[in-house]
Amino acid sequence: MDKVRIDIVSDIVCPWCIIGYKRLEAALMTLADTVNADIQWHPFELNPAMGPEGQNLREHLNEKYGTTDEASVSARQTLTTLGQEVGFEFNFADDSRIYNTRKAHQLLMWAYSENKQFDLELALFHAYFTHGKDISQENILLECAEHVGLDLDVARTVLNDPTWAESVASTEQQWLEAGINAVPAIIINRKHLISGAQTSELLVSAINKIIAEHA
């Protein structure tokens, strides 16, 4: 078995991040007989200045990218279809909102040390995209933490400890300085960057090529 280190830089409110991961998951299933992947998730906030109330998603896309209502509806339909193809359920609505994700990333950073990061990451994606929950709120984050078996008292401390917030900000700055300015970003063996939600076929090919180069 070839051991492969995979770092995923992502944000929970990024639909392409969960699509990208599910495609990677399919690629790794194809390679299951030859590749043993060690995956770690890393924080990237698309909207670090987002207020606690969040913002209507369509309004946000219009303000940030100039996306028209028609284009927004079309994008939602495309994402929903792509989600179905990879086995993930998106439930967009006209009142869908986008939220600040700093505290969610604090929890994810701690969850890594508890070997629960992967479970929590998926739980947060489902909470936000499938169930439309406000993943900036402490009660929702604690609900997700409890769901994956994390200690709630420690989780509560992590959410309210400014040093965890500083650790997230510092890590994000390191990725920015490394040239990562869009997500998802998948880094194989610490040096091979694959940007965006690439197809499973491309990921299989890329991983095989990387392994062959280092054989």
UniProtKB/TrEMBL annotation:
InterPro entries: DSBA-like_thioredoxin_dom, Thioredoxin-like_sf. CDD domains: DsbA_FrnE. One of its GO terms (molecular function) is oxidoreductase activity. Residues 6-207 form the DSBA-like thioredoxin domain. This is DsbA family oxidoreductase. It comes from Vibrio aquaticus. The lineage of its organism: Bacteria, Pseudomonadati, Pseudomonadota, Gammaproteobacteria, Vibrionales.
